[in-house]
Amino acid sequence: MRSPGSRAAALLLTAVLAGCGESGPSDEELVARTVNDFGRATAAKDYAGLCQRILSPDLIEDVESIGLPCERALAKALSRVKDPRLTIGEIKVQGETATAEIRTSATGQAPSRDTLRLQQVRGAWRIASLGEG
Question: Residue 31: which residues within 8 A CB-CB, separation 6 or more?
């Protein structure tokens, strides 16, 4: 059986080690995660996921400006894209906005270099623009 002093020392050590651990992913890592999620959702034709979890409200409003709900507008624009691939380059975070340089390609299409703009929306990174060349 442990003495009260050794139990207190063990608890103190546990608290100190917990405080030394990582505080969570950096904003750059969270932006990269969002951009990767965007690439996967696009490849999977998960338009609901794009509209509900990945695109910013302002971008959704822009997408819907053609008179269709977000999911249908994305399906119309992206349904013919075959085997899309996305590679992330440099990420820059400035406060509640960020940019991510990307390279994209798809079967039958020329590769493209673009810059995605992201913004924090209720604590989550969302894509605010789709490619500023």
Answer: 91, 93, 98, 100, 118, 125
Each as own residue / partner, the long-range contacts of residues 63-71 (CB below 8 Å, 24 or more positions apart, any chain) are 71/47
Number of independent structural domains in the chain: 1
Which residues, at least 6 apart from 32, have a Cβ–Cβ distance to it below 8 Å? 88, 91, 100
**HEC string of 90-126?**
EEEEECCEEEEEEEEEECCEEEEEEEEEEEEECCEEE
Residue 84 placed within a domain: yes
Residue 47 lies in a domain: yes
The alpha-carbon radius of gyration of the chain (Å, integer) is 21
Distance from C-alpha of 69 to C-alpha of 47, rounded to nearest angstrom: 11
* 65-122 pLDDT per residue, tens: 989 999 999 999 888 889 999 999 999 999 999 999 999 999 988 999 999 999 999 9
Q: For residue 83, tell me if it sits in a domain.
A: yes
Distance CA 13, CA 7 (A): 10
What's the CATH number where 59 sits? Answer: 3.10.450.50
In a domain, 76, yes or no: yes
